[in-house]
Design a protein that fits this description.
alpha/beta; Isopropylmalate Dehydrogenase; ten-stranded mixed β-sheet; binds 3-isopropylmalic acid; binds manganese (II) ion; NAD; manganese; metal ion binding
Amino acid sequence: MKLKIALLPGDGIGPEVIQQAVKVLNAIAEKYTHTFEYSKGLVGDVAIKEFNNPLPEETLKICADADAILFGAIGDPKYDNNPNAEVRPEQGLLQLRKKLGLFANIRPVHTYTSLLHKSNLKEHVIDGADLVIYRELTGGIYFGERKLSDDKLSAVDTCNYSVEEIDRIAILAFEAAKLRRKKLTLVDKSNVLETSKLWRTRVAEISKQFPSVKLNFLYADNAAMQLILKPTQFDIILTENMIGDILSDEASVISGSIGLLASASIGKHTALFEPIHGSYPTAKGKNIANPLAAILSAAMLLDHFELYDEAENIRLAVEKSIDLNITTPDLNTTNHFSTTNVGNFISDFILDDDNTFYNK
Ligand code: IPM
Ligand code: MN
């Protein structure tokens, strides 16, 4: 298969982890005789520096011409102490999601046997946890009208959802649940918010088309607690934009590190694949960032084009690196490996046909 992949490495550790993901994709291309062509675009702080625009036209064009987008990370600490900055790196990612109509963000969370005992959570609590968060990505409070009053003494953010926005992601989430353990949990604040009430009504309505899927509802505060009390109770979690952002960082603790969580953002046009982590500025240039989330995002990209064996091969290699403790410091306090070491191991493992070397 021939695929045109737009690379948007972004800020901080983004370029380092994307470099490893590309290395792994190249190993897959060689092993399975595919052609992956890459084109690079600027986004975030690096684009602001060059064009004073976090999402330059040129980058959008590269994305529009591609079959898929692989995204690194975004954000820079210099904006954190300046909340009133008019132009921020994050706007690049938010605009990209909106412009490409990427309304569904899919974030799988599961455990790795050899990391169970290292978790901050008790092993028996997380053992067997395997869930997928379906986060709505182009609506809600992230994209509602916002305003600071003229006297700067009050501010407003609005949360909007239309039936169409709820239905399209709900259908995707139910379809996914049907192929998994057939349980869907809608997380909202319908005891308080009008938008949440609309979500409940619509999702209950749509569930009639999916009689094999068991639907239940949780308030977001309770869901945050249940996620770490008993994560095995979840299969598919469906939720709106901001709640999904918060719960997915929390859920990464179940896997062992936020450096492990990949995601796919799909919608009307070209799909985008990205780690859920941020730009980790203090690690930039140190070759210590975990590349696994970016590498696993590349695996989700391959799944999207039904290259299932290829994607599985990446996941197998990732598991092997974790089993052998060939991991970065976030997962490994002793004898840790660099970002490059981990990427090299995974691509070598993929290319070593019988995996003879590493199985010794
Ligand atoms: C994420 C990030 C983004 C979000 C930021 C960078 C705007 O935290 O993808 O989870 O809030 O959606
Ligand atoms: Mn986030």
